[in-house]
Design goal:
Elements (H helix, E strand, L loop, with lengths): L3 E10 L5 E3 L8 E6 L2 E9 L8 H18 L5 E3 L5 E2 L2 H10 L1 H10 L3 E10 L2 H9 L2 H12 L2 H34 L5 E4 L7 E10 L3 H14 L4 E9 L2 H4 L1 E4 L3 H10 L5 E3 H15 L8 H20 L4 E3 L2 H6 L2 E4 L5
Antiparallel strand pairs: 1-4, 1-5, 1-6, 2-3, 3-4, 7-9, 7-10, 8-9, 11-14, 12-13
């Protein structure tokens, strides 16, 4: 028999406990779980490891997660929780809402009346772009040189030519993206550039926009579209919740790993963040690999020390921290998700 957990979609400003309908993952009922004037948007769901699900089911659940958040967004400002966040039960849910209350209130105030618009920009005709690049003097010279060289030397020239084309294309993309960003960021509160998917994509950027400026921002995109006269294509996705700016994630730690990290830095069962930094500084001085040139074990030992410090620092963000087993096993926190580019 499966154990029921609590799946968290995000957080909204309300003190009401109410049902939002059977719209959740696995068609479960979505409802609010209030604490003071903040509520988690949740549904009961069997405890599962989302990263172990088959891709087809994972993508289906992701689509439902996004649909729930975007439905809630129509009537509330929502701070999204990272996809796949599920807690063991109501006790953990209550703990996480109470502990993160201050952070949630601050985030909601900062994101009030804000939306995210994602702008993707692509070359309209990649072949034309590559032909233009092919007219660059250095590229033309290498092409001509390849014609005159014997077969055994052509391969190396082609490799050099390929690298040069790629570098030129990247520079052309970066220059175009910079020009577009200079225009669009003027009407945005913030922006976050994501990695482009392939060589045909120029820009893939999330913009944080005040709701009242959405029309102005979109008209700027239309103006750019006309300015480039079909050479590039623009696609706007949104309005969305501020996924790229305020998505939260749950943090838990394994006692065994944390205890090993504590012992590696020579700390007691209670420490301050300052003591952790000082212990790391001392260990770094003593075991830095520069003091043991050519010793691979010294490098591995230093990496373990650094890893231990990062784990302890991530756990201990308060003035005083306990590493006792009973407290570590009960520890749970909510942090802002670092969105990769």
């Amino acid at each position: 028999m499966s154990v029921e957990g609590r799946y968290i979609y995000g957080f909204i400003s309300t003190n009401e406990q109410k049902s939002l309908g059977f719209i959740g993952i696995e068609q479960r009922e979505v409802h609010t779980f209030p604490y003071k004037n903040v509520a988690a948007v949740v549904s009961d769901l069997p405890l599962i490891q989302f990263d172990s699900l088959p891709k087809e089911i994972l993508l289906r659940n992701l689509a439902v997660y996004q649909a729930v958040i975007e439905m809630v967004m129509k009537s509330h400002h929502i701070i999204p929780m990272k996809f796949g966040t599920i807690l063991q039960g109501e006790k953990d849910l209550k703990k996480i809402v109470e502990k993160s209350y201050g952070r949630l209130v601050t985030s909601m105030k900062e994101m009030e009346n804000k939306i995210e618009l994602d702008v993707a920009v692509l070359w309209s005709d990649m072949e034309t772009v590559l032909r233009e690049i092919g007219e660059e003097e250095e590229i033309k010279r290498l092409k001509e040189e390849a014609v005159t060289k014997p077969a055994d030397q052509v391969f190396e020239i082609k490799i050099e030519l390929g690298k040069l084309v790629k570098d030129t294309l990247d520079k052309k993309r970066e220059q175009c993206a910079s020009q577009l960003l200079d225009v669009l960021k003027k009407d945005a509160e913030n922006y976050h550039s994501h990695a482009v998917m392939d060589d045909s994509m120029i820009m893939n950027t999330a913009f944080l926009i005040d709701k009242d400026r959405q029309e102005t921002f979109e008209s700027k995109v239309d103006q750019l579209d006309k300015q480039y006269n079909g050479k590039i294509n623009f696609r706007i996705v949104g309005p969305l919740p501020p996924y790229s700016f305020t998505t939260l994630e749950m943090k838990k730690v394994e006692f065994g790993e944390l205890n090993e990290a504590r012992q590696m830095l020579g700390l007691g069962e209670e420490s301050t963040s300052l003591e952790i930094r000082e212990a790391y500084r001392e260990m770094s001085k003593k075991f830095h690999p520069d003091k043991y040139p050519g010793d691979q074990e010294a490098q591995k030992r230093f990496e373990k020390i650094t890893g231990a410090y990062r784990m302890l620092s991530d756990y201990c963000q308060d003035a005083q921290c306990s590493f006792k087993e009973t407290e570590v096993r009960d520890w749970i926190d909510v942090r802002e998700l670092v969105v990769s580019g």
